[in-house]
Here is the input.
Amino acid sequence: MTVKRCVVLLLLCLSTGMAQVKTLDAVRNESSVTYRLVHPLHKVEATSKDVHYKLDLDLEKKEIKAVTAVVDVTTFDSGNSNRDSHAMEVIDAISYPEASFASTGVTQSGDSLAVAGKLTFHGVTKDVVVKSSVKWSGNSLFVQGEFAVSLNAFNVERPSLLMIPVQDALTFSLVAAFRWE
Here is the structure.
């Protein structure tokens, strides 16, 4: 075999073995993050449509390789501006204006996804696992997920109503839409 044929064969092997990984930003007006807080007398939900999701996607294998998310905590809206202002005080949004997530591992099985990573919230970083479902449609990917964290673990004083604090669990629900050419 000539040197030229060996080089061509090597290049062909390398090009077919390399993943076609693409970094995608979520479609902003179709993506959101919502938090849910539970008090014995009522539930509070607030949503931000200003979340920045990004993922590395192997298009050929339809595999998610890495995920990041960042949200400005002041963009959450519960429909009650007084409640939202108090929430910003509780989490000290001036000192900690963003919450962020960076994956450390992604496990995908069919339409189920488990994304392990580091969540930074209120100046504290903790390991979390986000359980999600994925839906592939042509050149689109839709992800919905949920995870809960302990307010105490992130050094957030639990708000109270009538001297009764909210539950320690703060649950986040995620919706992310991605498209590519």
Remarks:
- Residues 20-179 form a domain with the Lipocalin fold (CATH 2.40.128.110).
